[in-house]
Structures are given as C-alpha cells and as structure tokens.
Amino acid sequence: MNSYHIQLDDVDLNSCVENKNVFNILSFNLWSDYLEMPGYLDASLSFRLTQNYSTVHSTYSIQFERKIGPLWINIPCITDSCSGQSLCILIQNSCGSIKSCNKNCQLSTGSHTLEHIRLPLKNSFFEHKIFTKGQYKFKIQIYDNANTIVGCFTGYITLKKNE
C-alpha cells in the first residue's frame, strides 16, 4: 500500500463558463492530509442553491490533469468512474449527519454541506512513478437532467510520497 501527503493548494469556486449556476459553490475541503492507495479521497463540499432542486436525474463528472513542467496534461480517470455519476447517490452517501440534506435527493433553496464525500481511487494509476508526487488539477462539473452544466469548480492539489 502506498501512502501520500496530500495538500489542497487552491480552489477556483464557480469556474463554469455559463452563468446558469444553480449550485453556487461556497467551499471545498479535504478531510485529511493523508492518502493511501488504494483508498479514498475524503472531502467536504458546501454550496448554495438558487432554487429548489431535485438531484434524482442529475450527474457529475471529474476531470484530472497532471502538471508536467509548465503544461497541464489530461490523465486517465483515477476514480471508479469519472463521468455520468449520480449526484443523488453521492448526496445519499454523504449527508448522513447533515440536517439540511435529505435522502430523497430533493434539496431546498439555501446553503447545504456534504461531509465525507468518499471518492474511491484506483491503485493501478499510481504504480507509474511519473504519476505520483507532484501537482494535480481536478475539475468537477454538475449537470442537470438535460446535461446542462449547473455548477462546477476546479481544485489544485500537491501529492508527496510518504517515505
């Protein structure tokens, strides 16, 4: 098992091009600075909804890039799936202790926080030394049932191998 120190360097909140954001991202944080492979990226996400919203048919996607020199290079998906993931299931799995969150995937206007969002990470990707320590960028986009982006953010992390 490989272990890493993970540092969240920056988050560009609401980095969508469109101005049709239903989800206004307030914050994104990591629960721990320790990461094991295989394992989970454990995070929290706070957002404000501009309207009542049903996440039943909504999805999210995650895109990863690795900084090599001055360039950002797209990298393969390092979670179980990087696109078309159910936002409803994510909420159901992440809102156990959240009073503003309910298990039927209906969210009201206002602020919400999802704690302990656990994204499984594939070990096979990190077997190649070039893709371990260094800087990474990830973009998470949220889509409505018509596949229109209704929220997104970009984060920057640094991984350091624990010796």
From TrEMBL:
Q: Report the Gene3D superfamilies cross-referenced here.
A: Ganglioside GM2 activator
A Pfam family hit = E1_DerP2_DerF2
An example GO biological process term is: ganglioside catabolic process
GO CC annotation terms, alphabetical? cytoplasmic side of plasma membrane
GO MF annotation: an example: enzyme activator activity
| Top-level lineage group | Eukaryota
Which keywords does the record carry?
Signal
User: Which SUPFAM superfamilies does its entry note?
Assistant: Ganglioside M2 (gm2) activator
Q: Which residues form the MD-2-related lipid-recognition domain?
A: 11-155
Signal sequence: where? none
Stretches of the chain forming a coiled coil according to its record? none
Q: What protein is this chain from?
A: MD-2-related lipid-recognition domain-containing protein
Recorded source organism is Adineta steineri
